[in-house]
Design a protein that fits this description.
By secondary structure, the protein is an all-alpha fold. It has eleven helices and no strands.
Amino acid sequence: MYLLAGIIDFFTSINGIFYTLAYFVGGIPFGLLYGKFFGGINIREIGSGSIGATNVLRALKTQNPKLAKKIAILTMLSDALKGVVVIGIAKLVGLSFEAQWMMAFLAVVGHCFSPFLKFEGGKGVATTVGVVAVFLPIEAILGLIVWFLVGKFLKISSLASLLGLLVGIGSSFIIHPEIPHITTHTPLVLIAFIVIYKHIPNIVRLIQRKEQKVI
């Protein structure tokens, strides 16, 4: 009885409400929705089955290459903004930085393990960039630069994403030995762990030199 009361109290508290909101908003499968709306296709049945921008591009480019690029960019921006919007509202409400970082983590979890897709989802890269940019814009920019350069010259999306992630989060240990307001890198490490976990099949293909390029 006490446990149930504690759970109810948590989810009806301001922090609990925002944590739940961050997870569910993070879980919105924009790539899937855009693929169905603009292309009439289910991107989960095409390519890698991921709901991210790369698979949106791969799924739509056979129909309309120009539209595919636009929708892929729209997907990337939408996924990046999912956590940003909720954290922005939390800032206005006055939630603590610890709570905001928890929301950042839950937004990435929601994207990678969406409650709307039977706890499947995307790789979490765009959502990670978005939430990290809220707190550590320099690290987010460094990660984006690496992602862009690797993607442009090597044309391997997963490699670009992983290297961008490692540079972005890795650089935080140099630029910010103590993360402002929370003093710990734990949220970043946990986010990186989730994104790398979701990329395990890609990592295996990279090692085997079987990973497909995005042309």
